[in-house]
Design a protein that fits this description.
Elements (H helix, E strand, L loop, with lengths): L1 H49 L11 H14 L22 H15 L5 H4 L5 H9 L6
Helix pairs in contact: 2-3, 2-5
GO molecular function, one term: acyl binding
Organism: Proboscia inermis
Pfam family, one: PP-binding
Length: about 140
């Protein structure tokens, strides 16, 4: 019986050690995490304040965008280059159907190394629409 009670005491002692260890470990981790988080957020705040905004968003000049888009549209094989202007509409002025317009928008994406979401691409129906979209896109190159 003394051996049986020793086993119970050992099991209870072992269980208490696990509980105490896990509690202490949790408290230690909370302290470490909060110290780390405070340091990380503090470092990020300092870094954010010291980096100029121009590194986050660089917009191309509208004139450059317009020239490049006009060139892309003029080079499209189904377009009469003499009809291309800054105000030309893809279907009315250039005679492009919806599939051709999609191809022009894809060529513009390639030219500026951007991906235009379908919902936005559907709104681009003229040279001016394309210029406005690309000029306002911070990742256009």
């Amino acid at each position: 019986t003394s051996q049986g009670s020793n086993r119970k005491e050992f099991k209870i002692s072992k269980s208490l050690n696990k509980i105490m260890f896990s509690s202490v470990a949790r408290l230690s981790m909370r302290g470490a995490c909060s110290r780390t988080s405070a340091v990380t957020f503090s470092a990020l705040r300092q870094q954010q304040q010291s980096v100029p905004l121009r590194h986050f968003a660089t917009f191309l000049p509208e004139g450059e965008v317009a020239d490049r888009i006009l060139q892309v549209v003029k080079n499209f094989d189904k377009v009469d280059a003499s009809k291309v202007s800054a105000t030309a509409k893809f279907s009315d002025d250039l005679g492009l159907d919806s599939l051709d317009a999609v191809e022009v928008v894809m060529a513009i994406e390639d030219e500026f190394a951007v991906e235009i979401p379908d919902a936005e691409a559907d709104k681009i129906s003229s040279v001016q629409d394309a210029v406005e979209y690309i000029s306002g896109h911070p990742m256009a190159k």
